Amino acid sequence: xxINWFKYSSPASFYTLAGKMIPIFVxxxxxxxxxxxxxxxxxxxxxxxxxxxxxxxxxxxxxxxxSMFLYVVMAFWAAIGLAFNTRLSSMFATAIAPTGAMFTFxxxxxxxLWGKPMWGTWWVWDARLTSELILFFLYIGxxxxxxxxxxxxxxxxxxxxxxxxxxxxxxIIYFSVQWWNTLHQGASVSINQAPAMASTMLTGMLVMVxxxxxxxxxxxxxxxxxxxxxxxxxxxxVTELQKKGAV
Amino acid sequence: MNWSSWSEFFSMGGYGLYVWGSYAVxxxxxxxxxxxxxxxxxxxxxxxxxxxxxxx
Lengths: 247, 56
Known about the structure:
The complex is a heterodimer of chains A (247) and B (56). Helices cover 74% and strands 0% of the residues of chain A. Chain A has helices at 11-43, 57-84, 87-119, 127-148, 152-166, 169-179, 199-231, 236-244. The longest helix of chain A is centred in the N-terminal third of the chain and has 33 residues, at 11-43. The radius of gyration of chain A is 20 Å and the shape is globular. In chain A, helix 2 (57-84) packs antiparallel against helix 3, helix 2 (57-84) packs across helix 5 (152-166) and helix 3 (87-119) packs antiparallel against helix 7 (199-231). Chain A has a single domain, classed as Up-down Bundle (Four Helix Bundle (Hemerythrin (Met), subunit A)). Chain A starts with 10 loop residues before the first helix and ends with a helix. Chain A has eight helices and no strands. By secondary structure, chain A is mostly helical. By secondary structure, chain B is an all-alpha fold. Chain B has two helices and no strands. Classes of the chains: A mainly alpha (247), B mainly alpha (56). The interface between A and B is large, with 44 and 34 residues.
């Protein structure tokens, strides 16, 4: 079956498509979440060094990965919107930011609660933690700049500049544990080494990463639909939708 | 199975505060985020009336 993907770059047709996709991702998120928590708490063994405290990993690592990944996706769509003047791309960037900021906050929060029992401190100004905090400020900066500008298309363009410049922070976060001495442990998973943990721990963590993925997609689609309506509320197709419903 | 009782499960080997403090805040953030988006949509619908999907 041939699908005309370009059709969906128009907010009107994407709005409907997104509405159909959300339930699928919600169901997938719930399934992965239940499976991931079950593996994380009931299958994965106690860590020989960190005891039960290590179980924070099942949300800390997914949150940290999502915080970085969502930023790159946000900057990508912001850049596309800036370069090609496509409305939907910019709306996507705007829709991703709050979820990215939330995951960044959660990575910092769960990291603090993990750091206290393991390192003896909630916070330390080292490279990994500081660069992740900067990521949080980048998200906040992107959102407040957009909120401060009344014209949405101008807000898109100004936000895109912050988003694109801020991408430089992502490799800094990722490689910070190699480039600088830090309290933070090295990568939990890397391509050229065996994972530094038991296989059930790894499985639990990866299933939780999938759950975060599905959740993020669902919630971002939900938000982008609201943004589409907000921005296109005076267009013919939205009026058409209202007529169909009992206005 | 790692736990022989519920109290053992909740105490998390003495790290209960840290482990559950992490999971509770994650849960709260998710609930808050979903509610905020639903609220934003409801505000719109108050302004423009109920909005149905095409082909539904």
